[in-house]
Each structure stands twice: as structure tokens, then as C-alpha cells.
Amino acid sequence: MRHLPNFIFASRWLQLPLYLGLILAQGVYVVHFWVELVHLVQAAFGNQEALQLIFAATGQQASATPTHLTETTIMLVVLGLIDVVMISNLLIMVIVGGYETFVSRMNLENHPDQPEWLSHVNASVLKVKLATAIIGISSIHLLKTFINAENYSEKVLISQTVIHIAFLLSALAIAYTDRLLGQPTGDKAH
């Protein structure tokens, strides 16, 4: 039984392949971002095949085939790119923050590129940061849906709004609980 605690503690390294998998997933997002950006630039210069690809990717439906970029299409593509960046930021927070919190210290104290938030990361801070990032991603997704609302049913619009509100309420509950648990007993000043 003497070695059991060391074995249990060493099991944290089983998370390493999960974080490496998330790094690969981020690589897929990078490729997706550049493919979409190239299609947008090509469509801006009149490439009809690229225009068809981004029109389909943004979920727009029309009786006639589009012949040029519209402001709505550009906005939907750009919001999609922002969505990819925000998801990528979320992945970085999970990979770096999760590794630092649950697996091993990264010892980046003197590294010039160390993220500011990493110096005070813990499971509680990570939860709040992740909840905030998810709200941002949900907001972008909801905005894309509302811009393209004519292509969605009322049920989808209502469902996505309710889900977004649920994310907001969950994040508020997490932050409030974190604040309550973080206060010393008897400290009501904050």
C-alpha cells in the first residue's frame, strides 16, 4: 500500500495524450481557417467556385446561384473565422491551463511569452475562463444564426437563444460559486 499513492499520483500523466490530441485538433482548426480565408479572398476576386463553396459553408440558401459576394456572405465568413479563432483560444486555455493545473508545472516564470493568466491559474480560475470563452463562442454562433435567420426555422432560433442563455446562467453560477468559495469566513466586505 506504500506505493499506491505514488501510482495514483503518477496516473495524472494519462492526461498527456489527451492534451496532445487537442494540439492536433488545433492544427485542424488552423488548416480550416486558412482554407476558408483563401476561399473568401478568391471569391472577392471573382472566383465562382470559391464563391459557391463559401455560400454553401455559410448555410445560405437561394433560388438563384450567387454571382458575387454580398455583405451578408462576407460577414458570415468573417464571423466563422472569428469563431475558429475563439475556439482555438479555448483550446489553448484547456491545453496549457489543464496541463499546468492537473499534470505538471511548465516552469515558464521567466519566459517572455508566458501568458499573464498562467501565473495564477488553478482549477477554479480555469473554470471561469472556460465559461467566459464558451459564452463568447456561443455569442458569435448566435450572431451568425441571426444574420442568416431566413435560412433557419423559428424553432432553431429559439433553441439556440435558450442554449445561449443557459450558458450565460451557468457561467454566472460558476463565477458566483467561485467567489463564495474564495471568500474567507466572516469576510463580507466583498
Estimate what percentage of residues fall within beta strands: under 5%
**Order of SSEs:** HHHHHH
Binned, the helix content reads over 70%
> What profile does the largest beta sheet have?
none
Tell me the number of strands: 0
Alpha carbon gap, first and last residue? 45 Å
Low-confidence stretches: 185-190
Task: Describe the fold and architecture.
With 190 residues, the chain is mainly alpha-helical. Helices cover 70% and strands 0% of the residues. The chain is built from six helices and no strands. Helix 2 packs across helix 3, helix 2 (16-44) runs antiparallel to helix 4 and helix 4 (71-103) packs antiparallel against helix 5.
Which tags fit this structure?
190 residues, mainly alpha, 70% helix, elongated, disordered C terminus
Describe the structure concisely for a colleague.
By secondary structure, the protein is mostly helical. It has helices at 4-10, 16-44, 48-57, 71-103, 123-147, 154-182. It contains six helices and no strands.
